[in-house]
Amino acid sequence: MAALGSAAALPSPVRADETRSGTILTGTEPSANAEWHTLRDLGCHAAVDCVAWITSGCDPALAGMNPGVQSSIVDVSDLADGTTTRVFSSRSAALWGGDYTVVQFWNRRTAGGLTFCTEVPNSKSSEWHCWNPSAECRGFHERALRVPVTANWMTVTTARDSVHTTWTLT
Fold first, then answer.
1. CA 159, CA 92: separation in Å to the nearest integer?
2. Less Cβ around it within 10 Å: N or C end of the chain?
3. Cα distance between residue 9 and residue 83, in whole Å
4. What's the pTM?
5. CA dist., res. 57 & res. 107, Å (int)
6. Strand, helix or coil at 87?
7. What's the rounded Cα separation, in Å, for the pair 76 and 24?
8. pLDDT tens digits, residue range 11-42?
9. Residue 33 CB-density burial (10 A; 0-12 exposed, 13-18 middle, 19+ buried)
10. Residue 42 carries which DSSP code?
11. CA neighbours within 13 Å on the CB side: how many for 143?
């Protein structure tokens, strides 16, 4: 199991109630004219269940589905301190290299009686991918991250070939 990026497989100092995890049944599917990088760049906006959640104004009733169809949507407001380094890891049953995982943070705002779901600026991490089809790289990602202070929600989306992806934030 290889660690990607600067995160090493170290024990996390967080409590069990601070752990988030989920399963995504299938990744996002490109439209006929889209290329792979379009989905990676879009993240949550490429997953139908995630788009429904955004459109709803971050309705909590649409979050927390486990397993999720194309995305995981979890409440991270109690983890949003901006300073604690956490470890995000994911593993998929992909049969070949080329899968990726996109993590995004969101907040819920109300203005003029309307509720909006907006992405926390500069919080998307679309570089968490693995293109080497070697056994130690295939289907596994691990990365250090911090939950932004303004985040209420975290979404996790994957590529279409990343079937049955499990992930954990500790």
1. 10
2. N
3. 19
4. 0.76
5. 9
6. strand
7. 18
8. 445 555 789 999 888 776 654 444 545 545 56
9. exposed
10. H
11. 19
